[in-house]
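To: structure subgroup
Subject: Chain for Friday's discussion

All,

I'm putting the inputs and outputs inline so they're searchable in the archive.
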Amino acid sequence: MTTPALRLDAHEPQHSSVTLISPFMSANEVRQVVPIALSTLLVWAAAGKFPAPLAMGHIRANGRAAKCMWVRTEVMEWVEAQLAKPRLLGPKAQAVQA
């Protein structure tokens, strides 16, 4: 007895498992990567110490954006730059300071 061949019906849609990643990050996504209070991140952004968010949508009467998003590549480049900096605590830092 022969087993029937596997047949894919050409009329059935093929689903791909491709996940699209937005080039933008919400405040919650940024805080998952950089666990700092949002108010601090905004102060750092105003001082040029952290990437500034983009205003998305309309501007409210108080002059602030209804929604702000960060550019994912800018945030990740900032994280990489922080990781490349010398550490100020720990045994390696103490050896450098001695």
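Points worth raising on Friday:
The CA atoms of residues 46 and 59 lie 18 Å apart.
Residues 24-83 form one domain.

D.
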